């Protein structure tokens, strides 16, 4: 892999840090929102928590099988293409995104 100048490396580190921070904030916000919505759901609607948990479990398992490793495979494929041709890598990444 070709070496990058120091300025490009700093930009890459800054972009990665910004992305990780954004994902962390999103995960915390999603967790807090799920907690609040679960409390409201249990308070205002007469459902049993066991039914809710069972439905959530089935949806979670189905979601895991629906991706079936697609995220890891696409990440590996884009990284593989980046070593060969960066333009082709961006094309593949954009194709997988949309």
Describe the structure.
- The structure is a single chain.
- The chain has a domain at about 1-45.
- The protein is built from 4 helices and no strands.
- The mean pLDDT is about 80.
- The protein is mainly α.
- Helices cover about 85% and strands about 0% of the residues.
- It has helices spanning about 5-45, 50-65, 70-85, 85-95.
Strand content: under 5%
Shape: elongated
**Separation of the first and last Cα atoms:** 28 Å
By DSSP, the count of extended strands is 0
Helix-strand makeup class = mainly alpha
Helix residue percentage? over 70%
- What is the H/E string? HHHH
Radius of gyration: 20 Å
Summarize the structure.
It contains four helices and no strands.
Strand-helix topology:
Blueprint: H1 6-44, H2 49-67, H3 70-84, H4 86-97
Defining traits:
98 residues, 4 helices, elongated, mainly alpha
């Amino acid at each position: 892999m070709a070496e990058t100048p120091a300025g490009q490396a700093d930009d890459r580190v800054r972009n990665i840090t910004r992305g990780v921070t954004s994902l962390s904030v999103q995960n915390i916000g999603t967790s807090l929102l799920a907690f609040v919505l679960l409390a409201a759901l249990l308070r205002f609607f007469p459902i049993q928590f066991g039914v809710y948990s069972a439905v959530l479990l089935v949806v979670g398992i189905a979601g895991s099988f629906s991706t079936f490793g697609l995220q890891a495979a696409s990440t590996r494929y884009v990284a593989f293409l980046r070593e060969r041709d960066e333009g082709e890598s961006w094309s593949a990444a954009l194709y997988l995104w949309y």
